[in-house]
Amino acid sequence: MISVYQDMWQRAWPLISDNQISLDPFLSGKTDTRRGITLLARIKSPVSESIYAFLQQMQQREPEQYYYPLSDLHVTVMSVLSCQPDYQLSAADQAKYVDLIQNIVRKTPAFNIEFKGITLADSGVMVCGYVTDDSLVALRAELRTQVGASNLLHSMDKRYTLITAHSTVARFRSSLQQPGALGAFLQANRNTYFGKLPVTELELVVNDWYQSKANTQLLANINLLKR
Predict the structure, then answer these.
(1) Homologous superfamily of 2-223
(2) Cys-Cys link to 36, which of 11, 83, 119, 218 (CB 3.0-4.6 A)?
(3) Closest alpha carbon to 101 in 156, 180, 54, 23
(4) Which Gene3D superfamilies match (predicted)?
(5) Mean pLDDT of all residues in 162-180
(6) Phi, psi for residue 122 in degrees, rounded to 5
């Protein structure tokens, strides 16, 4: 997993340094009706506070960017249905997704995610997460198999195959004001330790692109199998 994060950094670093980042138009006032279905793990205290402290420091250098609030910090376990414009989910379909996915999750042992270091994309900054066993890998495989074999609408792995346990914590919505200062700050935090998160439950939600609390509909809290 370390090599995946390193590759991401190496691809995005020149773009950050040269201020050739990818700007998100929806974070600059454009109406966003995109909605999807996601299975996720909420990042809770004290890890969330460690990440938030990092974001506050980053915000001092680049105040115009988008920084995830504490309430929205998360790890995507599976994007069951990627966000699409004007998506509506009927109550009957909600129940079908909940029934299938909770039966899978409840058989998966609880696991830990260690958050250490950051990596980059051309569109934002991510905290690197590492799962200490194969529970998350096995869960994702089972979701791909069972949801894929169902008649439920899904788009798993359509954008990319999800293999990491990262958390996107900041997104770019305007050109960098101080690319040099930001670059130095990011370099200094490449190996910052944010803490270990015990994951004992997951949320199945209807969400917008950013997992904004105001636009999130909780379908189910699902407990993982106690060890």
Answers:
(1) Cyclic phosphodiesterase (3.90.1140.10)
(2) 83
(3) 156
(4) Cyclic phosphodiesterase
(5) 95
(6) -65, -15
